[in-house]
Design brief:
By secondary structure, the protein is an alpha/beta fold. The protein has a five-stranded mixed beta sheet, with helices on both faces. The longest helix is centred in the middle third of the chain and has 12 residues. The radius of gyration is 16 Å and the shape is elongated. 31% of the residues are buried.
């Protein structure tokens, strides 16, 4: 069983000390693009994301990116906490797991967001301009915050 672990540096060292994550391929929150590349190429069984990172926009974007990729449907996403042994888990095919006892509101919200299926948009006649997909991994800054560029049009851009 292979695992990818993503957390803030101080949380990462605590989680790597646990037996279930000692052999995990570990990435800090600043290494999100490298983590995504490892997930896309390695297809791990589990992606464990520390709850502090999961509730940030980059963590939520990573979770949504994994959930949106049909080639990663067998990957189990776990929201884990460095403070306790509890974790929340969301398998791709199911309804998602309920947060465990002791989950904070933000972590519970992140777990719920992972479990909620995306609503399919009507792509015909709803856009003012055609959108053009961008190669994966293009990172941009918006108001000083990092974001991943998804597509562009003459009237806007989609970022995560």
């Amino acid at each position: 069983m292979s695992t990818v672990l993503i957390a803030e540096p101080d949380q990462l060292s605590v989680l790597k000390g646990r037996s279930e994550y000692s052999d995990a391929q570990a990435f800090t929150d600043a290494e999100t693009p490298a983590a995504l590349e490892a997930i896309m190429t390695g297809r791990p069984d589990i992606v464990a994301i520390e709850r502090i990172f999961a509730k940030k926009s980059r963590g939520a974007a990573l979770i949504n990116r994994i959930k949106a990729d049909t080639s990663l449907e067998t990957v189990e996403i776990r929201i884990v906490s460095a403070e306790s042994g509890a974790s929340k888990s969301s398998g791709r095919g199911g309804s998602g797991a309920a947060p465990t006892a002791g989950a904070t509101g933000a972590a519970a919200t992140a777990a719920a967001a992972v479990a909620t299926p995306a609503v399919e948009l009507d792509q015909k006649g709803t856009r003012r301009a055609p959108r053009f997909k961008i190669i994966e991994g293009i990172e941009v800054m918006i108001d000083g915050n990092p974001a991943m560029l998804v597509d562009l049009s003459t009237v806007g851009a989609q970022v995560v």
